[in-house]
Design a protein that fits this description.
InterPro entries: Homeodomain-like_sf, HTH-type_TetR-like_transc_reg, HTH_TetR, MT1864/Rv1816-like_C, Tet_transcr_reg_TetR-rel_C_sf
Radius of gyration: 19 Å
GO molecular function: DNA-binding transcription factor activity; transcription cis-regulatory region binding
Keywords: DNA-binding, Transcription, Transcription regulation
Protein name: TetR family transcriptional regulator
CATH topology of one domain: Tetracycline Repressor, domain 2
Largest sheet: none
Structural class: mainly alpha
Organism: Knoellia subterranea KCTC 19937
Strand content: under 5%
Shape: elongated
CATH class of one domain: Mainly Alpha
CATH superfamily of one domain: Tetracycline Repressor, domain 2
């Protein structure tokens, strides 16, 4: 009997679902092979080891986020661009909830162990946010905080906190949650605006 061909992407998605719903103790090559209807060799052929698979799951989560952010146009209205980034951030999390849950879980390794490529993948999204924030400061839409990373940290923390609560089912009904999210984004932008 031949083992069905399973792609690396399918392995990553199955691993993300296990990590997000059952934690690191549930993740094993045997369990993944069973979930995917294939052999354990499939996992090792694609990734070499379980730690490499976990790193691939985290990297894929950030790649999906970057795909959403990179699709956004840069306009003449940096404030509107920041709102668009916030919307894209949430859309990515809702489309990829298991990947999103693993991206920030710390399951892959300690920051000091990350390669330059891994750090670059993780920082790309934040740099996109920094660029939009810098343009908003230069256009006078936001007050100059004196630190170009201040707004990206604020905005990311706000979006991440809201979206994490939403994915956990702790914020409102689906009918009202987007309006609440945009109100929070607006409040953060208004608090940061020039006076």
């Amino acid at each position: 009997m031949r083992t069905p061909k399973v792609t690396a992407d399918e392995v990553v998605r199955a691993a993300a679902a296990l990590l997000a719903t059952q934690g690191t103790s549930a993740l094993s090559a045997r369990r993944l092979a069973s979930e995917l209807g294939t052999s354990t060799m499939t996992v090792y052929t694609h990734f070499g080891s379980m730690p490499e698979l976990v790193r691939a799951v985290v990297a894929e989560g950030f790649r999906q986020l970057d795909r959403h952010l990179d699709a956004l146009p840069v306009t003449d209205d940096p404030r509107a661009d920041l709102v668009a980034i916030a919307r894209a951030y949430r859309a990515n999390a809702l489309e990829n909830p298991h990947l999103y849950a693993v991206m920030f879980s710390g399951v892959d390794d300690a920051p000091a162990d990350r390669t330059a490529d891994e750090r670059r993948v993780r920082e790309h999204s934040l740099r996109t946010l920094r660029s939009a924030s810098t343009r908003a400061v230069e256009a006078g839409a936001l007050a100059d905080p004196g630190d170009s990373w201040e707004y990206p940290r604020r905005f990311w923390a706000t979006a991440h906190g809201f979206v994490s609560l939403e994915l956990a089912g702790l914020i409102g009904s689906p009918a009202t949650v987007e309006r609440s999210y945009l109100a929070v984004v607006d409040a953060v932008l208004n608090a940061s605006a020039t006076r």
